[in-house]
Amino acid sequence: MATRTEAAARRTAKPEAKATGRPATKAAAPATKAAATPATKAAATPASRAAATPAKPGDKPRPAPRVAFPKKAHPPTDAEFAARLPAPVGKRFEALRGFLDKQGAAEDFFYYGPRTGWAYRYLIGEKSLCSILIQAGRLVGIVALDAGAQAGVAWDGLSEIARRARRVAHGTPALLWLDVPLDGPGATDFKALLKAKLAAPAR
Q1: Chain segment 130-162, per-residue pLDDT in tens
Q2: Is the pTM value of this prediction over 0.70?
Q3: CA angle (172 as vertex; 193, 151 as ends), nearest 5
Q4: What is the pLDDT of residue 25?
């Protein structure tokens, strides 16, 4: 039979176990959760999203706008126009500008309306020679050829780019408007068309 001293010791020990046992364990668990869970979410979740999003295999680059410089109040500078061109196309464009300069053509920017936007315009005197603009990310030369100029073009010696431009050209047999992409051999084709126009008798 327990003595009064032992019973007193038991009563004293129970509150101490409650104070130092279960409450201490519960207090430590939230601390562990608070320390681990946010750190894991902060360190892993955003990093995973940032790393995974650009790497989607099905992603496609956004298509270039149909009209590069559509706003009349914001004409481009030479540098802004050149910045839209890939390096090889930019070199062909500069060579074409040099050719036009040798022909005595004056160069300026001209606004053709919201569907076309700003383009380089080339004039000899008051006569329009051609225009060069960016359409859907591609450099395109536009030239109008009358019947005399068309007769002076050796179409068989041009690439498929120029021949296709002839097939889809608009206008009339008396005055044909051709849109020639200037990447690849198109730049050489366009120069041949300009030579034919320059050599045609003035009307």
Answers
A1: 999 999 999 999 999 999 999 999 999 999 999
A2: no
A3: 40
A4: 42
- Res 52 pLDDT > 50: no
- Of 130, 119, 107, nearest in space to 68 by CA: 119
Residues across the chain: 203
From the list 183, 191, 190, the residue with the least C-alpha distance to 89 is: 183
Dist. CA 8–CA 129, nearest whole Å = 114
Alpha-carbon distances of 61 from 8, 42, 123, rounded to whole Å: 82, 30, 37
**Cα distance between residue 55 and residue 70, in whole Å:** 33
What tokens appear for 47 in the block? 């990093």
Report how far residue 130's alpha carbon sits from residue 120's, in angstroms, rounded to the nearest whole number.
8
Q: Give the type of residue at 70.
A: P
b/e per residue 11-33 (b: at least 16 CB within 10 A): eeeeeeeeeeeeeeeeeeeeeee
Do the Cβ atoms of 93 and 139 come closer than 8 Å? Answer: yes
